[in-house]
Design a protein that fits this description.
The chain is an alpha+beta fold. The protein contains nine helices and nine strands. The strands form three sheets. The protein has a five-stranded antiparallel beta sheet with strand order 1-2-3-5-4, with helices on both faces.
């Protein structure tokens, strides 16, 4: 959960605003209780609406495209995927001083998986591979390039800047020469030479829901980054969540070749390197996972 101002230009959101927005646009739900949902998310705030719904509102202008992307594609994807995805129930619009569109979804039960506390990591790896494979098999046309879906070199300047910033934060203890070497290795890997594939493009633990009793994947949420691109983009769970044995199960189930694996590791590392200095004082969940990714990637070398 964020403890401060994560981004410039964040719009203040509270229970009162959400109640006014819901009452004004969906009066049939006006009587339902509203409660903030604690989340490590970085772009949207979430509020439980009654027992069966959740309101999702962008915190920053950059989240508006995510709202529209989900409105367009989630209804198309739902029947094509092996796990539940958010079901859009209401399309909210700007009002009461809130400047952006927002959405109401059906509430999805489950818990975010936690690194080191997975009940069935191998089965979860199989579930994640099945989801990624299903995304890749989609043949719908018209999607834009996914966030992070382009050539790996497009992340180079931002990744190198983050490494240099971490050199100035010695208390984080990041071996900046070692991570730079991993990044260079990823850049040298052959690029994706096939057609672009459908991607979720943000498979972070906070965007996954598992059954607390079985540890199996039940839902994938937050499709704001979806689109098409390099299949390596959806290998994030290999390093941000899964332990070593489950990581290999995930790779084997997807049939990932060496070049794609190397790019996937580089992409996951890049995301972590950029996130750590940015969120270390404002979003403990993001910073904690970034540290885990960096350690995991360096151990795998």
């Amino acid at each position: 959960m964020s403890t401060g101002q994560m981004h410039p230009g964040m719009h203040p959101i509270d229970v009162g605003l959400v109640r006014r927005l819901v009452a004004g646009q969906f009066p049939r739900w006006a009587h339902l209780p509203v409660e903030r949902v604690a989340s490590g998310g970085t772009v949207n705030a979430m509020y439980r609406l009654g027992d069966d719904m959740v309101v999702r509102l962008p915190l920053v202008r950059g989240g508006v495209d995510d709202v529209m992307r989900e409105r367009t594609w989630l209804p198309e994807l739902a029947a094509r995927l092996p796990t539940a995805v958010p079901e859009l129930l209401g399309e909210g619009e700007r009002a009461h001083g809130y400047p952006w569109p927002w959405s109401v979804y059906r509430w999805l039960a489950g818990a975010n998986p936690e690194v080191g506390l997975l009940r069935e990591p191998v089965l979860l790896a199989e579930d994640l591979a099945a989801f990624v494979a299903a995304m890749r098999s989609i043949t719908l046309t018209g999607a834009a390039q996914a966030h992070r879906g382009g050539p790996l070199a497009s992340l180079d300047a931002e990744t190198r800047a983050a490494i240099e910033e971490l050199r100035r934060i010695p208390q984080e203890g990041v071996d900046c020469d070692a991570v730079a070497a991993v990044w260079e290795e990823a850049l040298r890997a052959p690029g994706h030479d096939g057609p672009p594939v459908w991607l979720h493009a943000d498979l972070m633990p906070g965007n996954l829901l598992v059954d607390p009793d079985t540890g199996r994947l039940t839902s994938v949420i937050d499709f704001g980054c979806l689109g098409t691109g390099d299949p390596a983009c959806d290998l994030f769970p290999a390093w941000n969540l899964l332990p070593a044995k489950a990581r290999e199960v995930f790779r084997d189930a997807l049939g990932v070749d060496d070049a794609t694996w190397t790019r996937g590791r580089g992409r996951t590392l890049s995301q972590a390197l950029i996130a750590l200095p940015y969120y270390r004082d404002t979003n403990p969940a993001m910073a904690l996972n970034a540290r885990h990714v960096i350690r995991t990637v360096l151990r795998e070398r």
